Amino acid sequence: PGPPPASAPRAAPFRLQPVLDYRTNLVDRLRLELAALRRRQRAEAERLAALQTAEGQALAALRAQQAPAAVPDSTASVRSESSNGEESSMLDLPQLMQLTEHLHLLEARIAAQQEVVARLAAEEAELQQRIVAQSKDVKALEKLRDRQQEEHARAEARLERRETSELAIRQYQRLRAAL
Question: What angle do CA 5, 8, 11 make, to 5 degrees?
Fold first, then answer.
């Protein structure tokens, strides 16, 4: 194909187009990274909820183990006896120690998991700030490109009007010379 006709506006090349493309791709990558971070954050929050549920269950089991030992008298006995002298229940000290140790372990894991969730929330906030800053850069470059295209279109329109005026003047001069 040959050159475009004189009346068709030529697109002005935007010199910063590679920079705009790079910045746009960077924003897209950051958004994908944010989506992945949010998925990970949800998974870690679910782990935290599961740990907290396990802690609640361990506390309930510990209370259930300690409930039969609650006797109204002040003796610190391992056994409680009913009114007829029979043994009604006995504290299972190894079981209590195991439940207590399990509870302490869950508390430590919950604290660590809360730190993970908090760290991920901080990373999300920082990533969102980076996306906002990069998006502003992209918008500024797009505005610059749009202004350049508008200016180019105005220059093309001025050139076309000038060429049309010159053509009209030549035709008028030829017509006048012919008379």
Answer: 120
pLDDT score recorded for residue 87: 43
- Which pair of tokens denotes residue 64? 């259930």
SS (H, E, C) the chain: CCCCCCCCCCCCCCCCHHHHHHHHHHHHHHHHHHHHHHHHHHHHHHHHHHHHHHHHHHHHHHHHHHHHHCCCCCCCCCEEECCCCCEEEECCHHHHHHHHHHHHHHHHHHHHHHHHHHHHHHHHHHHHHHHHHHHHHHHHHHHHHHHHHHHHHHHHHHHHHHHHHHHHHHHHHHHHHHC
pTM above 0.70, yes or no: no
Q: What is the pLDDT of residues 48-63, one digit of tens each?
A: 999 999 999 999 988 8
pLDDT value of residue 128: 97
